[in-house]
Amino acid sequence: MTRLPHPIPRVFPPTLAPDDDVTTLATARADADARYNQALSAVDAALLAVREAPHPPPAPDETQITPLNERWRTLPDAPPITGNWLQRKIAGVAWRIVAPALERQQAFNAALVDHVNRNVPVDRANREAIDAALRFTSDALGELRAFHSALIVYFQQLTSFVDSKDFEFAGHIRDRYIALDGAVAGLTDEILKRWESMVAREQRFDARATAIGAAQAESSREFRDAIAVLHQATIALKREMERIGTPAGPAFAGDPVAVAPGESASARHAPPSTVDNATHGRFGAWKYVGFEDRFRGSRDEIRSRLEAYLPIFSGATDVLDVGCGRGEFLNLLREHGIGGRGLDLNHEMVEVCRTLGLEAAEGDALGYLRSLPDQSLGGLFAAQVVEHLDPDYLLELLEEAFVKLRPGSAIVLETINVGSWFAFFSSYIRDITHVRPLHPDTLSYLLTAHGFQEVTVRFSAPYPERDKLVRVAGEGVVEDAINANADKLNALLFTDMDYAAIGRRR
To answer: 486 vs 83, which has greater pLDDT?
Structure first.
């Protein structure tokens, strides 16, 4: 008779944050609101005050214009010359002496009067222009003040607008989780009912999947993902059928743990929930392989991200990769001459590693660590693992890791940076196997509390700058306020996607 898997537990939405994290977030939000209100008050205090415009200059003095136009002539007509010859001679000589000076004076008077006459309309126009400019400036300042007032009202509505979007998004996420929980529960029941028929139809499904894959090679990514998942399912079914009734061997060659037939070394020390998950993982492992291939990234991408951790384990031996997945980090260790081995609950992941010639075992981390001698490990690495663990299990795992690591050995725990809102809502909640988000401060404190020293936090996978909120150009109170708000939102929404807490045992 075909052996049925253990009941698959229903998946519920993970708790968003512990009470301490909620308090921290509330405090940070209150501080942000206070800074925002302070900046808004500064903008309000800087509101332009429209003062009374100065009076235009007085009108030009035109009192002497008419007398100047009437009196500019100083040269009389030539006087008649009468008398005897001597008198006429003297009068002509005198006129010829006086006339040139009078002519020059009259020419000067004429030029001066003409200049005054020409400047009268100019002075009038200047006064009218100044008067119009003052009125225009006063009106423009009034309009500018009205614009600043409207802008302040806009800033006052910005916080409530963002809050309403947050509430809407949170409600949407909650509804999606409720729907997903119901769908997963229904799908689980259906899978259990059809398990017997799936075993009988395995060969036909395999042939059909191969035919569909060949015919639809150029189809959409969603269709290719479905074919890949179906193929993984058939491989998992074959391996399970081959393994039914076969006694389980030790996790690694040379491990000191003796196990009974059908019992793994990890299951002996694992809590009941972990054993159930491990058993269920053997039957549902092919699904998670497809999930990793689609959402976490290709092997080349993961390798490029994990290369940064290699110097931490330089010269080490017996490095344990907990949750080794598809073996990207184990491959890097082998290429750099660092002795390492992997451990994963997911049977299909372990098979992928073994296919690549890597040393990997199937089992839970806590049970495996307890089976090792003290100070037998030269390093411990876990990428995207701790967010899958219950808090009590994580604390026991850290305590056991400290005992099993040799002095000077490093521990590296990489996880999703839930301090980034985009990383939390995009990466963390996408994976239904996540149990508890871990803030960088929390994880680094846990390492310190369990005796590890030189604890640091290293952030990675930065969010692309081109997709962040853009700062506005210019300098001024308004621009500074807008840019400050953009920086705050970028710091909350679009920071590094991952981080690693790193420590050493001394």
So the answer is: 486
